[in-house]
């Protein structure tokens, strides 16, 4: 089960595309999170994936590590494996936090959009200044840290023209897990979508080059979107209230973060746990697929059922925004074009990533090592063993 | 009206969702084999549900024939084809028990192969299974890793690494193996992964047949497998001392969620057992893996805190302490909590399983007591509610109602009381709330002192 804790609604940045629009002065008491973990275990969760969210979660770093200490204790006592990650803008990363993150096996995902113009187009300080220099310092700190971490970038119409340059910059900096998400709530006009397509083609060249060099990496959207086709059976759809929950600072339970930000469809409270009727009602709300999507050839690979995106884009959980439809199609077409070529070229890395289940960890290797909590060096070693 | 514009339903990416037999044949062409071993690709493709059944080494790779040159390419042929060949010479007494120096070398090698990555996650929940198909060899140990809660095997362990490790272990015992040596005898034919021609000893890690879920498996070619008849024929020759061959089946070493450590640990243990055995140490402990009880790190700590009730400890037989009223009870080795076996119980409605401590091992309990056990209800979507009555010699009872929703109870404390109404245990009874017979497995039952006067679990 995935538990997302809103540690605070405060943030030290004001990103233009942030989910969150109101920055309330809320903090999650440690015992709220611990209650949630205990309740999830009591309810039979066989493993837990904790995400510390915000706001900027590291504003509440002491609470985070206190929660983690208890989580690790429960993990040992109850034999329920627990993974943990914290997405952060990086401004507060220091040696103490990194040391504790390593000790408590908390995976760090740095929110960083790439080159300076990309980063500064969206991720701003409360004073409207760019945050590139500060976050680049955080990146260097993470690289020196020696543990696996990810960089998570948001692609918007405002920064899409820097997408390929940003990927190149991140790769050359030493980042090996590069994840991106599109800002579906933005206005993706035809020109922006065309730009997205051409940038993806450039990123595709990097992807192909890295595969041919037998590098170990995870680069979205290629790795994830190709696997949606070749490993369709392994994909997992989110089911708010069943496989995932967001816990508000006051202990209220929501299906996902967007529900929380909108204070929509409360599913229960950590004290009493889930209200089954509310969960059922939320599931009913989400279940209807839009008529236009029913016969769509890429429906199974599309994010059209993400309640979070839909709520942001259209205010309705089961109605995707047009921007999602356009960008998803372009993404999939571009990815499939490249994948087709990689298959025809019989690029070994491509074949292993996509057609060999024994080597499944190759495509998701970073995720695997994230879950195992091993160091980056080990990850490298194992990858080289897998790729002769 | 929404502005969403669906992609035509006929859209299909121009690269395969899974590989066909033709794809695999084509992929196994020599140029690619230069980069990957066949085993690597095939091990990867098998069991995936992604391959369309027919991937086979034989597709591009004819089985070796006597005197011929199989594409697996051993340049040396083993031609002990003459059934009149004299029995092989003894190998001497070079065993880890007899030689501290060898013990040290083998330990170091095992440490190198397994790495410093501690024990694999699944190791702690794994029990030991033995394969005695070749009755003339010591039992081959492999891990029984439970599949539950959506975890699954993702192929088998790293067979290339296992083969390499085996060769290194043989070398440690002074046996230098040639790779891929075709063996052809009356009744069996395969390509040994390693063989010492002079001493007539080698090993073979057989590859499993390839299958797509719901389809009949497609057999591997003769070079990588030994069918039942071939195994029987090989067994005969092993008994007669005509050949020495360690054989393990790769499919017994599953890769559970990427834990490559656990299967490799069991595999290495079997190779070392074999090498000791073939060098004269005929005592093979089939309860231990590399000198440790399976899952010892966890099991040991668990047992320290939660000692089992008399009869359930270690590998003892709990049957004399158990009686069933309205049902059946037996020992079973198809599932175990820690170790190799458990008690398999079938209770009819109103049936009851009763544990009574042996007369010479009275059980005294504190007021703050916790109950724990391993319990498994087999079958898809199985669920059952258990009533466990812990009764004292004063006939007062502590009742625990425990639902088993997800089929398998982890080894954890299932109930605590801070107010146990007796000091000495008379019995523990298990019944199931069901109007149908229910079968379950029970292991590692413990009643131990709860820390800090734990409150009653609601």
Instruction: Describe the strand arrangement of the main beta sheet of chain A, using strand numbers.
Output: 7-6-5-4-3-2-1-8-9-10-11
Mean pLDDT of chain A: 84
Q: Count of DSSP E strands of chain A?
A: 11
Profile the largest sheet of chain A. Answer: 11 strands, mixed
Number of helices of chain A: 17
Strand content of chain A: 5-15%
Structural class of chain B: alpha+beta
**Secondary structure tally: strands of chain B:** 16
- Relative strand content of chain B: 25-35%
Q: Give the count of helical stretches of chain B.
A: 8
Low-confidence stretches of chain B: 29-77, 79-83, 453-458
Largest sheet of chain B: 8 strands, antiparallel
- SSE order of chain B, one letter for each helix or strand: HHHHEEEHEEEHEEHHEEEEEEEE
Share of helix of chain B, binned: 10-25%
Sketch the topology of chain A as an H/E string, one letter per element. Answer: EHEHEHEHHEHEHEHEEHEEHHHHHHHH
Rg of chain B (CA only): 27 Å
Which protein chains are joined by the largest interface, and how many residues does each one contribute?
A-B, 49 and 52 residues
Helix fraction of chain A by DSSP (H/I, runs of at least 4): 40-55%
**Broad shape of chain A:** globular
Global outline of chain B: globular
């Amino acid at each position: 089960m995935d538990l997302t804790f809103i540690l605070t609604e405060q943030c030290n940045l004001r990103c233009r595309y942030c989910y969150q629009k109101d920055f309330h002065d809320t903090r999650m008491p440690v015992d709220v999170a611990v209650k949630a973990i205990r309740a999830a275990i009591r309810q039979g969760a066989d493993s837990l994936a904790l995400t510390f969210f915000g706001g900027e979660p590291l504003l509440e770093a002491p609470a985070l590590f206190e929660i983690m200490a208890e989580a690790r204790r429960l993990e040992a006592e109850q034999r329920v494996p627990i993974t943990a990650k914290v997405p952060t803008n990086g401004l507060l990363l220091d040696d103490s936090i990194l040391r504790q993150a390593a000790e408590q096996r908390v995976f760090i995902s740095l929110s960083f959009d790439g080159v300076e113009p990309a980063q500064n187009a969206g991720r701003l300080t409360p004073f409207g200044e760019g945050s590139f220099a500060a976050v680049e310092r955080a990146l260097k700190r993470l690289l020196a840290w020696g543990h696996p971490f990810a960089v998570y970038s948001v692609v918007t119409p405002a920064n899409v023209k820097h997408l390929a340059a940003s990927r190149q910059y991140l790769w050359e900096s030493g980042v090996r897990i590069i994840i991106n998400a599109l800002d579906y709530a933005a206005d993706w006009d035809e020109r922006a979508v065309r730009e997205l397509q051409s940038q993806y083609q450039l990123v595709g060249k990097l992807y192909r080059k890295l595969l041919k060099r037998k590098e170990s990496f995870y680069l979205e959207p290629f790795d994830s979107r190709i696997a949606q086709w070749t490993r369709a059976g392994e994909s997992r759809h989110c089911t708010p209230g069943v496989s995932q929950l967001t816990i508000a600072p006051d202990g209220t339970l929501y299906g996902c973060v967007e529900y929380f930000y909108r204070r929509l469809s409360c599913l229960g409270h950590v004290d009493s746990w889930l209200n089954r009727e509310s969960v059922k009602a939320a599931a009913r709300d989400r279940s209807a697929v839009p008529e236009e999507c029913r016969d769509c050839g890429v429906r199974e690979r599309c994010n059209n059922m993400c309640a979070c995106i839909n709520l942001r884009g259209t205010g309705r959980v089961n109605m995707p925004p047009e921007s999602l439809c356009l960008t998803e199609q372009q993404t999939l077409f571009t990815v499939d074009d490249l994948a087709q070529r990689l298959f025809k070229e019989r690029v070994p890395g491509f074949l292993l990533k996509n057609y060999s289940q024994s080597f499944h960890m190759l495509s998701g290797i970073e995720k695997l090592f994230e879950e195992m909590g091993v160091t980056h060096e080990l990850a490298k070693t194992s990858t080289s063993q897998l790729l002769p | 009206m929404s502005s969403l514009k669906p992609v035509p339903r006929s859209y299909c990416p121009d690269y395969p969702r899974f590989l066909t037999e033709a794809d695999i044949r084509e992929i196994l062409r020599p140029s690619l084999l230069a980069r990957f071993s066949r085993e690597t690709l095939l091990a990867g493709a098998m069991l995936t549900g992604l391959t369309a059944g027919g991937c086979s080494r034989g597709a591009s790779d004819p089985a070796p024939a006597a005197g011929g040159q199989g594409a697996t390419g051993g340049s040396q042929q083993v031609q002990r084809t003459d059934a009149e060949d004299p029995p092989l010479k003894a190998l001497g007494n070079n065993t880890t028990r007899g030689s501290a120096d060898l013990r040290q070398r083998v330990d170091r090698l095992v440490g190198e192969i397994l790495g410093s990555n501690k024990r694999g996650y699944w190791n702690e929940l794994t029990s030991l299974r033995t394969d005695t198909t070749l009755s003339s060899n010591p039992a081959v140990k492999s891990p029984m890793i439970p599949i539950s809660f959506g975890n699954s095997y993702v192929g088998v362990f790293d067979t290339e690494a296992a083969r390499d490790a085996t060769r290194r272990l043989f070398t440690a015992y002074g046996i230098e193996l040639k790779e891929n040596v075709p063996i052809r005898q009356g009744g069996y034919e395969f390509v040994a992964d390693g063989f010492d021609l002079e001493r007539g000893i080698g090993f073979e890690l057989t590859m499993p047949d390839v299958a797509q879920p719901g389809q009949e498996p497609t057999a591997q070619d003769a070079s990588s497998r030994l069918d039942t008849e071939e195994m029987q024929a090989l067994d005969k020759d092993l008994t007669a001392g005509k050949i020495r061959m360690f054989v393990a089946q790769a499919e017994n070493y599953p890769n559970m969620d990427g834990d490559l450590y656990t299967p490799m640990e069991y595999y290495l243990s079997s190779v070392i057992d074999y090498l000791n055995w073939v060098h004269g140490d005929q005592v093979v402990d089939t309860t231990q893996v590399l000198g440790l009880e399976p899952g010892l790190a966890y099991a040991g700590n668990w047992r320290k805190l939660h000692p089992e009730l008399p009869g359930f400890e270690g590998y003892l037989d709990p049957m004399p302490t158990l009686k069933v009223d309205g049902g059946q009870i037996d020992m079973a080795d198809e599932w175990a909590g820690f170790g190799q076996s458990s008690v398999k119980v079938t209770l009819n409605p109103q049936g009851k399983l009763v544990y009574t401590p042996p007369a010479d091992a009275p059980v005294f309990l504190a007021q703050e007591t916790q109950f724990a056990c391993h319990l498994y209800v087999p079958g898809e979507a199985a669920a059952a509610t258990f009533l466990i009555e812990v009764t004292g010699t004063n006939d007062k009872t502590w009742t625990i109602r425990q639902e088993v929703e997800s089929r398998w109870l982890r080894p954890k404390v299932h109930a605590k009381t801070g107010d146990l109404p007796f000091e000495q245990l008379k019995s523990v009874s298990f019944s199931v709330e069901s109007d149908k017979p229910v079968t379950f497995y029970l292991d590692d039952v413990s009643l131990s002192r709860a820390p800090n006067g734990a409150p009653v679990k609601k």
